[in-house]
């Protein structure tokens, strides 16, 4: 009889403690979007330069390097490595050529237009080093030939 009472007590205690063990962990706090110089790096970003003309589009999944002379070069876009006011993306093209894009949160002028960009860009394709400017792709496409390259505010719906 005494053994039965102990067994029942053990079952009751284990039933009570099971609720505590199955408690859900606290929800994870989402990481803030990486922003550099006011540019959201989770959105497409375009780096560009002159003399020679070149551009790198950071699409979110690829880094696409283009010049007036084909072929363009593509590499998977890694997550940005952020260090203070600098973001770096490093990868290899399908042909195995190293492609590195470094963005710095300093105002930049492309030297040919009266545009100013929020980021300075340094690009290395293989052994070729290029310097230029960068901003969100939306800002580059929506800005005229002069003034700051910034995204236009969308009208409230």
Description:
The protein is α+β, with helices and mostly antiparallel strands and 157 residues long. The protein is 17% helix and 41% strand. The protein contains two helices and 14 strands. The strands form three sheets. It has a nine-stranded antiparallel β-sheet with strand order 6-5-4-3-13-12-9-8-7. Strand 7 and strand 8 (86-92) form a beta hairpin. The longest helix has 20 residues, at 2-21. The chain is globular, with a radius of gyration of 26 Å. It starts with a helix and ends in a 9-residue tail after the last strand. 25% of the residues are buried. The model is unreliable at 1-8 (pLDDT under 50).
Blueprint (SSEs and pairs):
Blueprint: H1 2-21, E1 35-36, E2 39-40, E3 45-49, E4 54-58, E5 62-66, E6 73-76, E7 81-83, E8 86-92, E9 98-104, E10 108-109, E11 114-117, E12 119-125, E13 128-136, H2 137-142, E14 146-148
